[in-house]
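One thing: mind reviewing this one?
=====
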Amino acid sequence: MPVIPDLNILPKTRDSWSYLYIDHARIEQHHKAIAISHQTGTTPIPIAILSDLLLGPGTTITHAAIQKLAQHDCLVEWVGEESVRFYAAGLGKTRRAHNLQRQAIAWADPQQHLSIVRRMYEMRFATSIPPNLTLQQLRGHEGRHVRQTYATISQETNVPWHGRSYNRAAWQTTDPINRALSTANSCLYGICHAAIVALGYSPGLGFIHTGKLTSFVYDIADLYKTSTTIPVAFQTVAESELQLETRVRHACRDLFHQTHLLNRLTTDLTKIFDTGAKPPTSTPCFNTDPAVPGNLWDPEGTVPGGTAHDTSPQTS
């Protein structure tokens, strides 16, 4: 892979499409892009501006297509029907570890960890938080805020709300609003996951949520639910319950595009980790060739990898 002379020519995540969900189709390489073949015909996809490709049930994809997606830094995710389950993900846009190191340092340091938790709650509530509030009080405030949001939107849309409850094993017996919420949240998780991976953060190092490989995805998605997925779900159910999951996905797609959610994600992720602490001391490696060695850790800083560091004289 040739070295890029100017990093400014690289596409930015905020300029990309958010995601594309595909099921019951075959995906192949098509010239320098991919093409989706299904019963109604074949559709070329310009993957150079696509951030996240969601592969649902009944989807087959060729090795050449995966290679082309990887070359264009498109995250590929394997999901369940209607995107209500997440199984696996491929490689995202970045090859740098700078943001991952920054996240890990903040996650491991109790003071920085708490600072970031408080910052995320402030972003959710759109207000400053008194410094004397405990985490338990913050969680209580969060619960009241979310319950009030559900109650208000339920009244505005005339969609009955009896609480968050659904059974994945009996999906069709779940009431429409909970199915709509699950579908909308899955779309939101997908775009958040894409942005997190694309910027080089770990989806598993959560600050509020913990214990899952997508804990940080849940942290970030919670910043936007009350302004995106909850209104979309209630409004879609209020309009009709026919083809509910499909219509919810389309409504999320349109809303994410209209509100420039990817742009907000990149900005907010930077804001979350802007703690005033010094960034990791490792020297960034801007070479995009994954075959090029990275740097080596040293107590006094980093040293280049892939070189001979043995300065002792050779013996016969």
